[in-house]
Amino acid sequence: MLALRIITLSVCFYIGYRYIKDLNMKQDKNRDFKVGIVVLLMGAVCYLLFITDELRETIFYCSGILLFIVVYLCIIWYQNKK
Fold this sequence. Notes:
Blueprint: H1 2-25, H2 31-51, H3 55-81
Helix pairs in contact: 1-2, 2-3
């Protein structure tokens, strides 16, 4: 089970690394916020794979992560609208 967790974590980090590398190649004005979302998602994956065992903690943590992502997306939308 631990090997499966490590493989899943490695795949998530690789996908995040490739996405951030592609963002750095482009001149996107919202790059910092998009990188922040990727970092939040990678942190959430690490937490869910290795730390949490209780359903209640997981629900609180996931709802907090979703709230942060929604706020980030609203900030990106607002900046693009300006």
